[in-house]
Amino acid sequence: MKKWFIAVLAVALVVAAAGWETYTVKVSSVEINALAVGPGGGAVLPIRVTLLTPGDGRAYVAGVPEAGQGFGPSAQIALYVASRLSGVPYTNYTALLRVLASDAQVGGPSASGYITVAMYALMNGLELRNDTAMTGIILPDGLIGPVGGVSQKVSAAAERGIKTALVPIGEAPSGVRGIKVVEVGTVEEAIYYLTGRRISTPPAAAVDDSVFKAISRDLFNAIYSYYNQTVGRGYVDAAVIQRLKNKGYYYAAASLIYQGVVNYYRDQAASSGRTYRSLYNQAVQMAKEAEAELSRIPLTVNNIDLVVASYTRVYEVYFQANSSRPDAGAMYARAVTLRSWVDEARAMAYGPAINETGLAEVARMYLDYAKTMYAYLETTYGVTLGDYATAVQLAEDLYRRGLYLASIANSIEIIAETASALMSAAPDKYLNVARERALTNMARAAACGYTNTLPLSYLQFGDYYSGEGGNPQSALTYYIMASIYSTAMGDVSCMAAKGNVTLPRVNFSPPPQPPAKTAATATLPAVHGEEKGLWFVLILALLAAVALIYASRR
Q1: pLDDT tens across 320-343, in order?
Q2: Beta strand 351-352 with 59-62: parallel, antiparallel or unpaired?
Q3: Helix crossing, 472-497 with 404-422: angle to 10°?
Q4: Contact 380/388 with Cβ under 8 angstroms?
C-alpha cells in the first residue's frame, strides 16, 4: 500500500508541475506631449501611452471626446507599425492610451506618428526626449503624413519651452521663434530624433522584379491581342503604347489599353438599350464564372496578388451592377479581361500556402483606418474624394464574405488616395520619400518570398506619371499604394513562410480542381504547443494508472 501511495503521489506531483504555468504581465508607460488645436489656438496635450505584454493586440483609448474622431483606429495602426519595427507580433501587446484633461482636441490621427514612436520606445526600453514634441499621421507603411494647424501647434510648443518640434514634410511654419522645427517623412526619422536610435532598413536592391516582368508581359500580350482583335483602332495612342513597351513598362501599357477597351464598350452600351442589357448580363455571368474558378485555386505567396486583384475585379462588376446607374460598358470590359488574371493566378499557385481565415482582424484594422483617414480629410480639410461610399461598401462587403485580402487591398486604395490628397500641398517633396519607402517595404517583403507583383506595378505607374505622364499627384498616390500594399502583403507572406505547407508547381491544363480545403488549412502546424502539453498530461495519467494497477497487484 505504501508503494502504491508513493507512486501515485510522485506522478501527481509531476502532473501538477507540468500543468503549472506562471504568467508575468509586464507594464510600461510613458507620457508624450502631443500637439493639438483647441478653441483658444494651439496647445500641448499630454497623452499617457501604456503597453502590457502579453496582450491581445488591441489599442484601447480613454479621454474621449478629447481624443477626437478616429483616434482609436489610428492608435491601432500605431501599435501595428511599432511592433513591426520591433520585430515582434503586434498581438503580443495591449496598448492603453489616455488623453489627459484639456480643452484642446487631437484631430483624429494627428498624434499617431508620435504615439508610434512612444510605443516603439516602450517595446525597446528607450527613453524619449522630453524637450522634443511631434505632430503627424502614421501610415501603415511607416510614412508620416500631413496634419492641420501646424503653425498653431508649433507656437504652443515654443511657449511651453519645448526646444524641437517634428512636423510632416512641407509643413514647417515660418515666423515661429524660440524653437527648432524639423520635417520628417518616415517613422524611422522620428524615432531617431526622439530616442537617438537609428533603424536600419533593407536595401532597395534586394527587390527582384523578374517574376513581375514575366507576369506583366503576359497580361500586356493578352489584353493587346484582345484589343487588336475586337476594338482594332481609335481608342488608344499606339505610339504611347509602343514607347511604354520599349521601356519595359508592360503593366502601364496594359492599363492604358484597358482604358481604351472600357471606352469602346461604353460607346457600344450607349448605342442601344438592347446592347446595354446584353453587355450587363454577360458581364455578371462572366464575373460569376471567374469567382467560381478562383475559389478552386489555392492561395500562395506567389499568386496572392493575382488572386486578390482578380477578386477585386469580380466585385467591381457586382457593385457596378447593383449601383443606381450601372456602367454596363465598364462592367463588360472588366469582366471580359478577367480571364488572363485568373489564368496567371492558377499558373502561380505554388510556394508557401496562405491561410486567409486568420487575417480577419488585420482586414478590420485596415478598413477602420481607411474610414478614419477619409473622415479626417473631409472634416479637417473639407476635401471629398470621388465615390468614397462605394469604395467603402466594396471593402465592407469583401470583409463580410471572408475575402479579407481583397478587403485589405480596397482599404489600402482608400488610405493611399487620402494620404496623397493630404500631401497635395507638397507632392514633389514627398515623391522621393514615398518611392524610397515603397522600395524599402518591397525589399522587406521579398525576404519572405513575396513577389511584389502589384507593388511593382504601382511603382511603374508612379514612375510613368512622375515622368512623361506629367502628373506628380498621381505618381505620389501610386508610390504610396505600392508602399502600403507591399507592407500588408509582406506581413501575410512572412506569416506564410513560417508555416509548414508548401505547394509544388503544377502544370495546370485544363483548369484543375484542387481540394477545396488546401488553402484554408495551409499554415497551421499539425501539433500546437497546447496540444503537446495535453498529450504529456495524458501520458502521465496513463503512467499513474499503470502504477496503481501494479501496486494493487503487489
Answers
A1: 898 889 999 999 999 999 999 999
A2: unpaired
A3: 150
A4: no
